[in-house]
Please model this.
Amino acid sequence: MKLSTFVYCIREGFKNICRNIKFSLASMATVSACIFLFCLFFSLIANLQYIVKNAETGVGITVLFNEDLSESDILKIGEKIKARPEVREATFISAEEAWDNFKKDYFRGKEELAKGFEKDNPLAGSASYNIFLNDISKQESFVSWLKEQAGVRTVNYSSSAVASLSSFNRMIAMISAAIILVLLLVAVFLISNTISVAAEFRKTENGIMRLIGATNGMIRAPFVIEGTIIGLVGAMVPLLLIYYLYAKVIAYLSARFEILSGVFRFLPIESVFPQMSLAALILGGGLGFLVSFFTIRKHLKV
Amino acid sequence: MIELSDVSKTYETGTRALRHVDLKVEDGEFVFVMGRSGSGKSTLLRLLLKEMEPDSGTLIVNDMPLCGMPRRFIPKYRRTIGMVFQDFRLLKDLNVYDNVAFAQRVIGKGTREIRENVPEVLRKVSLSSRYKSKPAQLSGGEQQRTAIARAIVNKPSLLLADEPTGNLDAKTADEIMCLLEEINRAGTTVIVITHSREVVEKMNKRVIVLDKGIITGDTCRGET
Model:
């Protein structure tokens, strides 16, 4: 396609939108609503995944050893644990350290009560390793491996918190997918209607074009461009809105729920926006392109 | 050259529009096709425009066989034809210049070429001074001149005119016919479909008469 023809098609696409402004705006608004929700859920899911990831990597495994095992034997097992690729961090806690930690927590303010145990560590034989993994999905297999090791008495781990966060994440993803799907169908219907009206407006013009010898591509291009522009503009509006609102909402949530700031850390807009805007523009533009392409195929034949 | 051999066309409704038509039009000829409503004139036109396929027979235009022509070749074929309608079919939002330029744009001509060709064609049809006018501001004759300019701007080898004087008064009709004759003299084959015996008689050209899908007369120039 020559540059002048391409420019002509772009110009005609814009003209179509102007001629048909009410329908075009309605289509853009629907695409915007759809993409706005998409961006909203995208941010929500991205943040939830971030929180889950943080929570996952914060959940540790504690491994306790047989009481008759010497510290050097425990450290040998510790070396094997550290050599595992899924292990991010493994910290040895001796029986003395375990007792000191317990004392600090349990006898806070009444330290004199613990003096009776000074020469008799109730946690003797409680030397342990605190292990953190790179990827929580490997927890089960790692725990199985640990349990098979000679000298290992107990392995304590918890997956309930992570599991509930993950299932909440999945539920949000499914609800958002359902809402976005319904809105996408409405957008498809409205864009298709807009293109049909535009095709009706240009019926004479298209007829003349056909008889003069314009190719199908040339006749369809302005409509496809119109649909793509509707989709892209429909995507850009909510992106600008989200860009503006995101920082404000995060600032509000962080201030309002300051107490949870240690648990819930949110992603900065710079981390979410590039992927989100790319996905939104592809979704909006792609939707406009495909719907207009298939709608106009029905209307124009050689 | 246009050559129809044993061409028949029956519509789904059962109407037999053309029956075993044989016709030959040489390059550079000026031909009138006459006939009453339902005689098959429009069907002949639509076949020549490759808007439909005949049921049987062969149709060759400018050495291109139209029967079974792949879809992708149709636009290319149509670029060799200019078409003029009774109702002009001008784009009402565009001025004279843009209506003519439209024909060049849709076949992908560049801006420079359009700027050279359109004024030249407007001069030929004596519309240079009205190039900025919208169709609504033009007389019937001027509108038809614009339509003719649009039809010839891509330099077709064949010009098809469907009742080009049907909406015009006698004087303007004469002017339009003179313009078509001028175009024909420049080498373009012209086929005019008309009801008007008056126009045909004045022009003294070859006349093909269709009746119920059959060619009932083919009177060469000068014959009566």
